[in-house]
Specification:
The chain has helices spanning about 5, 15-25, 30-45, 50-85, 90-95, 100-110, 115-120, 140-150, 240-245, 265-275, 295-305, 320-330, 375-385, 425-430, 445-450, 485-490; strands at about 125-130, 155-160, 225-230, 255, 280-285, 310-315, 315-320, 335, 340-345, 365, 395-400, 405, 410-415, 435. The chain is of the alpha/beta class.
């Protein structure tokens, strides 16, 4: 018989049935000692050591394959069982899973294949929260989560959280602090505040958000992103943040803490790419050393981002004329936090409310905590303006300072009390006003009482304050006489008016 006829001969019948019968017979054995005895006899009947070793290895592989097959079948049966007994339909299950945080979604997805299928729906990853207390998330995990969310992506929270959590920025909780003296500070240093990621090695790089950008001109997954919170990602720089923001034209809430990015570049990026922004919280990673913000950048920011209602710029060098530009230009501004910032004296609050027609008219919360150059006389003038009827919506003011307020003429001479504020008159006119004025020496109010009610001053100072500079010493707080050569620069620029209204592995 030639080779051609042999090639045309049909293949022998499959041995599946023989394998099934053999496996059925093998599984029917329930006597474990008899299996051990038979295997021992088989090993002893093998002539050489190498043959015995090969036989043992084959038995181990076969046992492993059988165990894998049994586990897989058990999961499938459990999944089928869960799908039958689970009281909710898949669409309701997906809706519930979409309300969970990212870590919980990963946990439920690992429960069974039925839950995994539900948890893989894009809506379950619409709000990605990968912020951790210690670095343990890498670029691959972030990219996987973003791709799973797809066009459903709404928010991302990413990075290493501060070791000591700070009060949430402008939350619904009482905005009351409890620092009493310099020893109570949580590691803060005026000239040596480093990123809270500390000595931990970062496993997130500058490209961790590259998946937000599209390819070949196509819109990326960031096109629908509304909220982006980034914490202590040390390897992210100005260029990488710009790339990320350019992919997020719908962003309304941006929070940046501890990134090595500059204020000027960041505001320019936001101005160009995020016209819908409403909330910006930006805390410098190098307190007091970022002095790059320019007046044209402020001008462009208030012109292109008119919807800002919450602005927190913490730890930057911010002169009065720049702060004034921001407060006056952002007409919808309600919450302002310039804590731990340098350079401004408080004079920026002139002419931003009342007849000035600026954004100060809508201010509800203002936090000027631990601002090194904030002057006592400017706070006094501001409170006089409040008593005169300006800042009608303001309900919370924090002027606490571990270093004390700067005295007129010499900022190194510090004032450690707020007795210059006419507390009784303020309580009578503004009973819903909350003032927090805590100093290392002789705190002005009783913080424990304030915690019980965040809408009133807790106590009245027994001392009175008199000085040559009264609360209206500059004629009118609403006048715009300027503040040294800082305000003189404003005449060069035009103030723009408002145009219009895991699965983790």
């Amino acid at each position: 018989m030639d080779s051609n006829s042999m090639a045309k001969r049909p293949k022998p019948p499959s041995d599946h049935f023989n394998m099934d019968a053999l496996l059925t017979s093998f599984l029917s054995l329930s006597d474990s000692p008899s299996i051990h005895t038979s295997f021992d006899r088989l090993i002893q009947s093998t002539a050489s050591d190498s043959d015995q070793n090969r036989l043992i290895q084959r038995a181990l592989r076969l046992g492993s394959l059988l165990l894998d097959a049994a586990n897989r079948s058990a999961r499938r049966c459990s999944s089928d069982h869960n799908a039958v007994v689970w009281p909710l339909s898949p669409d309701l299950t997906i809706k519930i899973f979409s309300m969970l945080d990212t870590q919980s979604v990963c946990y439920v997805a690992a429960t069974c294949s039925f839950f995994q299928k539900c948890a893989m729906d894009p809506s379950c990853f619409a709000n990605i929260d990968l912020a951790t207390l210690v670095p343990k998330v890498n670029n691959a995990v972030v990219s996987t989560m973003i791709h799973r969310a797809g066009d459903a992506l709404k928010s991302i929270r990413l990075g290493v959280l501060p070791i000591v959590p700070a009060p949430p920025f402008f939350s619904s909780q009482p905005l009351v602090y409890s620092i009493r003296n310099a020893n109570d500070a949580s590691g803060f240093s005026w000239n040596d505040k480093k990123s809270r990621q500390g000595k931990e090695s970062s496993i997130l790089t500058r490209s961790c958000l590259n998946s937000l950008s599209g390819n070949g001109g196509a819109p990326g997954y960031g096109v629908h992103l509304r909220r982006l919170h980034l914490y202590n990602i040390e390897r992210m720089d100005n260029a990488s943040l710009l790339t990320s923001l350019s992919a997020c034209p719908s962003l309304v809430d941006l929070e940046i803490v501890g990134l090595h990015v500059e204020l000027r570049h960041t505001l320019e990026s936001i101005s160009r790419n995020c016209p819908l922004i409403e909330r910006l919280v930006f805390e410098s990673s190098k307190t007091g050393r970022d002095d790059g913000l320019k007046f044209p950048t402020c001008n462009e920011f208030v012109h292109n981002c008119p919807n800002i209602t919450t602005l927190a710029l913490k730890g930057f060098k911010l002169h009065d004329y720049k702060a004034r530009m921001l407060v006056k230009g952002l007409r919808r501004l309600k919450h302002l936090d310039l804590s731990t910032s340098y350079s401004f004296t408080g004079a920026f609050l002139k002419n931003v409310s009342g007849n000035g027609g600026g954004g100060g008219d809508n201010l509800e919360v203002m936090i000027l905590r631990d601002c090194m150059h904030l002057k006592e006389i400017e706070v006094e003038r501001f409170m006089a303006a409040v008593l005169a009827g300006e800042f009608k919506l303001l309900r919370h003011l924090d002027i606490s300072n571990r270093e004390g307020l700067a005295c007129e003429g010499d900022w190194s001479n510090r004032c450690y009390n707020a007795s210059f504020i006419p507390i009784q008159q303020l309580l009578e006119q503004r009973p819903d006003f909350c003032l927090v004025a805590e100093f290392p020496k002789g705190s002005y109010n009783d913080n424990d009482q304030m915690i019980g009610s965040d809408v009133s001053l807790a106590s009245q100072s027994s001392s009175s304050h008199t000085s040559d500079g009264s609360s209206t010493s500059d004629g009118s707080y609403n006048s715009d006489h300027g503040s040294g050569n800082e305000y003189g620069r404003e005449s060069v620029f035009t103030i723009y008016e408002e145009n219009s209204d895991y699965l983790m592995s």
